[in-house]
Amino acid sequence: MKGTDFFVGVLVGSIVGAAVGLLLAPQSGEETREVIGESARDIRDKVRDSSRQVVESSRDLIEQGKGRVSGIIRRGRETMEGGQEQAESA
Description:
With 90 residues, the chain is mainly alpha-helical. The chain is built from two helices and no strands.
């Protein structure tokens, strides 16, 4: 969730910043189109970077989950084998 919240924050902040910049600094049509294009590229880059961070975080979480599941399975097998040995010796 933290990665998603960050991603949304970056996106909203970029859009608001671009809009405020356009409203406070009137320019010719060509200059405005240039500013909009630059802002769009900046937003695209920020979204791309945020997406990469979310993917990396997700991969880390998946690896942690795999490790935990493997440990639980191993402990379950050990417990089951111990129970079988106790049952056989009884």
